[in-house]
Design goal:
4-stranded antiparallel beta sheet; globular; alpha+beta; 152 residues; single chain
């Protein structure tokens, strides 16, 4: 069986379609809002953007009394944080500033997201979004027909 990382390497440069689960306290109609990034759990330890889980069950740990919905995400080049977790490095900068600078650097290098795996499967995916710099992650997220917010 092919791991998620192997799948990404094989698909590099092609449009990559991934199904991912997003959790929230209140259902909303996309587009996602950058002003709410990091408002559920943390400041975004995989970059500045919108977060998804590869496994439906993982959503309930992030937002235990919220809602979940499955989305289709299309990326071209996702950064593998398992190989080099740039967002966990020591820095003298405030974390938010460091995260934004590193996300912008990766965007300029052609990455449109970042991911982490566990046991060969997608654990977490961040679709980068930095509108003030011209990168809108919403263009990479599609609502799946027939899917709607479901109470956790």
């Amino acid at each position: 069986m092919q791991s998620f990382s192997e799948y990404l390497v094989e698909a590099k440069g092609k449009k990559l379609f991934i199904e991912g689960w997003h959790g929230t306290r209140k259902p909303f109609k996309p587009p996602f809002k950058e002003t709410l990034q990091g408002s559920e759990n943390d400041d975004g330890f995989s970059g500045k953007g919108f977060y998804f889980f590869g496994n439906e069950e993982d959503v309930k740990f992030a937002v235990p009394k919220g809602y979940k919905q499955k989305f289709e995400i299309k990326l071209k080049n996702a950064y593998n944080l398992d190989k080099d977790d740039i967002f966990s490095k020591d820095t003298d900068l405030p974390f938010g500033q460091y995260r934004d600078e590193e996300t912008l650097r990766l965007l300029k290098e052609g990455y449109d997201g970042a991911y982490r795996t566990m046991n060969g499967k997608l654990e977490e995916l961040c679709v980068f979004s930095f509108k003030k710099e011209g990168f809108d992650g919403n263009k990479k997220i599609k609502t799946i027909k027939g899917e709607d917010w479901e109470k956790i």
